[in-house]
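Two entries, shown back to back:
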Amino acid sequence: MSENTVAVSDSGFEKDVLKAEGPVLVDFWAEWCGPCKMIGPALEEIGGEFKGRLTVAKINIDENPEVPTRFGVRSIPTLMLFRNGEVVAQKTGALPKSQLKAWVESSL
């Protein structure tokens, strides 16, 4: 992915997200999704700003259909914040960086 985000897959989701050391923000996205592309740079910046406190992960729903189905993702972008293997917060749709950051801070 990039310096501040990591790609996760159906096969690695349990290890990379559910059993991760700290909180993980998962972005469910697809290449064809305009709003997903709009929030991508903001999530990259948030990943850098919260480095050491939060992992920002991205899962392509077209390439990895099992995890989105398992967690009931019906529209994208959907953001889920996982802590200790549980979803502790969820947002759907594109938001400005300031709102995304405030949501992350309130959920940590």
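entry 2 starts here
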Amino acid sequence: MSVIIDRLDHLVLTVADLERTLDFYTRVLGMEAVTFGAGRKALQFGCQKINLHERGREFEPKARQPVPGSADLCFITEMPITQVMEHLGSCGIQLEEGPIERTGAVGPIESVYVPGPGRQFD
């Protein structure tokens, strides 16, 4: 017998700048910043959340080698890709790539790639 996974509940990102990360994901991507536990921060969207660890101030347990910028994330939206691109542009976010066809978890998707909050304004 093996374990059967139903869904992802949360993941943890180690970030260089907690406030910059919260701003990007709430202002640009519309997620909700939440505080839980002993003042920990997370980003809530749908039935998932992203817990945030700031580099050098990680919570236990943590990744063996927590490094900011080491994850690539793909989010699905119901908005047409043209509206997504317009919104990103209005937020001052330049696309790194796309729109481009990719293969998602359940089939074909159209993707745009944007720099994460640690790089978008460099």
